[in-house]
Amino acid sequence: MKNIILIGFMGTGKSAVGRRLAARLGREFVDTDEEVERVTGKTIFQIFTRDGEIRFRSEEALVVKKVAARENLVVATGGGVVLNPENVRLLQQNGVLIGLVADPEVIYQRVKRKRNRPLLYGPGDILARIKELLAARADAYAVAEFTVDTGRYTIDEVVEIIITYLKERGIV
Known about the structure:
Strand order of the largest sheet: 2-3-1-4-5
Number of helices: 8
Largest sheet: 5 strands, parallel
Number of strands: 5
Order of helices and strands: EHEHHHEHEHHEH
Distance between the termini: 8 Å
Shape: globular
Helix content: 40-55%
Radius of gyration: 15 Å
């Protein structure tokens, strides 16, 4: 059974939708960020601030390799996982990539109080940083074969939209 891989920017609902989707489909749920934290014994924020983004991306790539070798999963990826073409290749081998998107203002409302988003904090305006990162990553997120705007629907509606698509494709 193919994996269902949720990709998209931070705050688009990958983890929340992924958990609910996995429960509905009777599949195991894996969050790649949580796996990186489990394997390293550090939070994502700690890895970014102490070891740097390159170290985080390296740990993330190792987790992706392990997850991609498994079957019948629903996987919520970190927002930057698609920046590495090898991650995308591995995830596509046995998975269908579903993109979750939302307007920058919606993302901002979802993440503005969370201090565990290392790419957003530093000098400057958070909303401006979100827009900048979204623009820089637009091509990377375009690898999704199906996309849902989570700013327009509830979590349950997003799950239903994804399930309908997967049924049409014969994946579930």
